[in-house]
Design goal:
By secondary structure, this protein is mainly α. Helices cover 66% and strands 7% of the residues. The chain is built from 6 helices and 2 strands, in the order ααααββαα. A two-stranded antiparallel sheet has the order 1-2. Helix 1 packs across helix 2, helix 2 packs across helix 4 and helix 3 packs across helix 4. 12% of the residues are buried.
Length: 151
């Protein structure tokens, strides 16, 4: 990823990359602390944010092919976090939906959530509006770039 530094601090790209790396590493450590793989926790997050979906949709969003998606869902189902249910629209399809989450997930994520919450409480409502506008627009930009890479 290239971040233009025109009109910005010269180290802006490095600061941003450090931030993204820290978020990624925290997600991986959090997954391990809950006895999950990073992809498993990521898939649970996808389902929590987007609701029930077909295995194909989950695999596509997680960047997995059919075989790894099936194994992912099997692991999550065996752990009691998801279930497969028949699709109401097409009996040949199944829908994957969450039915639980790792017992320690909130405990594991609480310290980082509290620290980030502390940081956010230091911003004015107007600054928070800018931050959350950025998060929303950047998420859409990353999704579009991901879709382009997969095409």
């Amino acid at each position: 990823m290239t971040v233009s530094t025109q009109g910005m601090r010269p180290d802006a790209g490095a600061v941003y990359r450090r931030y993204l790396s820290a978020v990624l590493l925290h997600g991986q450590a959090g997954a391990r602390a809950c006895d999950l793989g990073a992809t498993d926790l990521y898939a649970l997050n996808i389902l929590e944010l987007n609701g029930p979906m077909t295995p194909g949709e989950l695999g596509e969003r997680a960047g997995l092919t059919t075989g790894p998606t099936t194994r992912l869902i099997d692991r999550l189902e065996q752990a009691g976090y998801v279930r497969r249910t028949p699709s109401p629209d097409d009996r040949r399809k199944v829908i994957v939906e969450t039915v639980g989450k790792p017992a320690r997930l909130d405990e594991v994520m609480a310290p980082a959530r509290e620290k980030v919450g502390e940081i956010l409480r230091g911003y004015s409502p107007e600054q928070l509006d800018v931050l959350f506008d950025y998060f929303t627009r950047a998420a859409a930009a990353y999704q579009e770039a991901t879709d382009d890479l997969r095409a």
